[in-house]
Design brief:
Mean pLDDT: 85
Strand content: 15-25%
Largest sheet: 6 strands, mixed
Distance between the termini: 41 Å
Number of strands: 13
Oligomer: single chain
Low-confidence stretches: 182-215
Strand order of the largest sheet: 8-9-10-11-12-13
């Protein structure tokens, strides 16, 4: 998608000035509609496309500037979601909101509360409970016009990505909890909740199941997984095994290396920032090892793998978990350029 000019104050003010005004079909109103479509809506589409592309998620945006009641919309919006789950009606959004006093950029977790096709009445009510506090959005970020001078596409896209990556676990938890409600309301489609969505809080994916291409985060996960599996298999002994996506209980682990005296669980994370990989990966490894898991015949070693070079802060953090809490946690970098697994930390 070709780059477009960044948002101007006039884009936000145009949304504010025409918010909720009745549309009469006149040439003047058609001209305003074209301005809305060409400027704030097209820029919102570009914003959404870039954020979704960089986070490995799917997106949808329709430059529809009229409400069903034939009024000018008091916002622009585009949704970003994981298309491997059971529903597209719980999502992140980016866009412009008219605001009570002044318009602002809005990034949030939301759901399809107007004419949903997949959510039941009960699920709709639960979505509201999980995403709202007294009518206000529970998970949101606002950027006001006074701050626009400090922003360009790079900064807005990066902060939007940060918001999504910070809230991915919450998003998956909401999707899972809502999906597990039974369907009792006629007129809505069947619940398609999959085991993959129930268990996931990471970027795990099977290539080819996505529509719209495989994005960078997902592609890197697959690439590291395949190379790591090959690397380990080239270096194992006859009495050892290496298995990708091996089930332990009902939990698929990226790679399990079984030795005569222990199991080694490898979890791969490919977020843009090291701390995101650590935040998601370590919790997942601990769940695999200790949450509702039958006692194993051998000790477990847990290794988080990412493309990032370990920092001194990470080394100190891992050593603290090892020494003060006795956790069998480690970190190793996988260098894609060198096709090499780094030193165990």
């Amino acid at each position: 998608m070709r780059e477009v000019e960044f948002f101007q104050h006039e884009d936000l003010q145009l949304i504010k000035d025409w918010a909720n005004k009745p549309y009469n079909g006149s040439d003047y109103h058609q001209e305003i509609g074209e301005q809305l479509k060409k400027n704030p809506w097209t820029k919102t589409k570009y914003w959404c496309h870039k954020v979704a592309n960089n986070t490995g998620l799917q997106h949808e945006v329709y430059r529809m500037w009229l409400t069903q009641g034939q009024k000018f919309k008091p916002y622009t919006w585009a949704k970003i979601y994981d298309d491997e789950g059971w529903t597209k009606e719980i999502f992140f959004t980016v866009g412009i909101n008219e605001g009570a006093k002044k318009p602002f950029f809005h990034i949030k977790i939301d759901y399809q509360f107007e004419s949903p096709k997949e959510l039941t009445v009960e699920q709709d009510e639960l979505c509201r409970k999980l995403t709202r506090d007294d009518g206000n959005y529970r998970y949101e970020k606002r950027i006001y016009p006074s701050e626009i001078e400090e922003y360009d596409w790079e900064k807005l896209i990066e902060e939007s990505q940060d918001f999504i990556e910070d809230h991915l676990s919450i998003y998956y938890k909401i999707v899972s909890e809502v999906g597990q409600l039974s369907l009792a309301t006629k007129g809505r489609s069947k619940n398609k909740l999959s085991e993959n969505t129930r268990n996931r809080s990471s970027s795990r994916v099977t290539s080819g199941r996505r529509t719209g291409g495989v994005y960078q985060i997902r592609r890197q996960h697959d690439e590291i997984s395949e190379r790591l599996e090959s690397y380990l298999k080239e270096n194992i002994r006859n009495n050892e095994s290496v298995d990708a996506e091996r089930l332990v209980g009902n939990k698929p682990i990226d790679i399990v290396h079984e030795k005569p005296n222990k199991f080694i669980y490898y979890e791969i994370k490919t977020y843009r920032k090291l701390n995101y990989c650590v935040r998601e990966g370590l919790g997942q490894l601990l769940e695999y090892a200790f949450w509702n898991t039958a006692e194993l015949s051998k000790p477990i070693e847990l290794i988080l793998v990412s493309k990032h070079k370990p920092t001194q802060v990470l080394k100190e953090y891992i050593r603290k978990l090892q020494n003060e809490f006795g956790l069998p946690i480690h970190y190793r970098q996988f260098d894609l350029d060198e096709n090499k697994l780094g030193k165990l930390i």
